[in-house]
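Question thread 4412

I'm putting together a teaching handout and wanted feedback from people who do this every day. The idea is simple: show students a protein as raw sequence, then show them the structure tokens that encode its fold, then repeat with a second protein so they can compare. Below is the first pair exactly as I plan to print it.
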Amino acid sequence: MVAGPDISFEMVFLGGLQRSGTTLLGRLLSQHSEVSGLVGTPTAEDEGQFIQDVYPNDHELGRKTSRNLRGTSMRWAYNPKAHLTEADAAMIPDARARLDESWRAYWADESAPMRLEKTPSNLTRTRFLQAIYPESRFLIITRHPIIQALAVRKWATVPKKVGLDLSKVVDHWLHAMDTFRKDQPHLRSVEVVSYESLMAQPAVVMVRLQEFLGIQRELLDTSSVRNTSTAYDRYWDYYRSHGRADYVRLNGDRPRDRVYESLERIIAPIASRAEMRRLSKLEPRLNEYGYSLDDLHCCGLRVDA
């Protein structure tokens, strides 16, 4: 039997693909006097997934070997263990107590009526978390899959750093979002917001999310909201033109990055032709989410639209 709700607080679970704005959105909402986030955890982004043992974290889901962490953000949703539902919750009757205990010491304000836990792979275990926390709410943030694929490239293996396999990363985005979309009708309280709309109108989006959460309206500081997609926009121009536009460095400035750059200048203009054909086949699926290969600034759709 799944544990009943603790009426002392309400959980909000924030999810979305890595580098889609989960950390930014979590920090913005945690400014609210009624919302408490996790702070001071042993992980850089204060993600609850890394300080619990109820379900596998993104690294465990995505790694190919016990030591390989590179590229896990581009594979985790393919793992069958990434998708959890009510049936999985029923198999772990003490899941609620274990999660509460794991996170207890890290809430910024234990007296807050609403607690926000941010983990990318919450995207594919919404039904599981709802079964454990029946009064929970879900926030999902999306970002254009091309931009997201380029933004996670710094964690990629060498082939992806030199312009190969872009379509594979986009396919992973689609697989994760398709899983969420199938689960969405089972959720009692869920809101989808795009990174693009947050960048365009941060104050408006934060008002909308406060209304969704049912908390009093407060003026939140959105000065930290800055669009960081310019370099990715320019790289996409280079990539889809098969090297005819100006090259844009995405890998950094370390000596080995210079080697990647030299290889990419040779490989990407050639490989991009086949990759663009593969990506074009994914275009109808991207359109379902309000995105297109022809416009990196479109704002996406609410997934239930």
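The second pair follows. I'd like the answer to focus on this one:
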Amino acid sequence: MSIPVKQISRGPEYIMNFINFNMTKLNEIYKEGIETHTTGVLGFKCSKKENKMDVFFMSEPVICTYIQKDCWKQWQQNTPPGKKLFLVQDLDINSVFFITV
């Protein structure tokens, strides 16, 4: 299933607070994922209403279940060097978006 994905400069406040507060651990998860899979993003499945924030590494095959492979390649190419992509699925607003950090 391919769904529209937006890039935003800043996510909802509860997501940004979580990212900022947990950046050290998120970097560890990301690094482990890259060492295993070479390429990918951190995925977040979250809901403020349910107080839920699932974080996991998404390899390319998993990412391509959300977006088409050519779109994924374009996101990779457009990400500035040294930056990471976080793919966020916010269940409360039924939206999927990338945050670059």
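Top answer:
Good format. For the second protein you could add a caption like this: The CA atoms of residues 12 and 90 lie 9 Å apart. Strands lie at 6-8, 40-47, 52-59, 85-90, 95-100.
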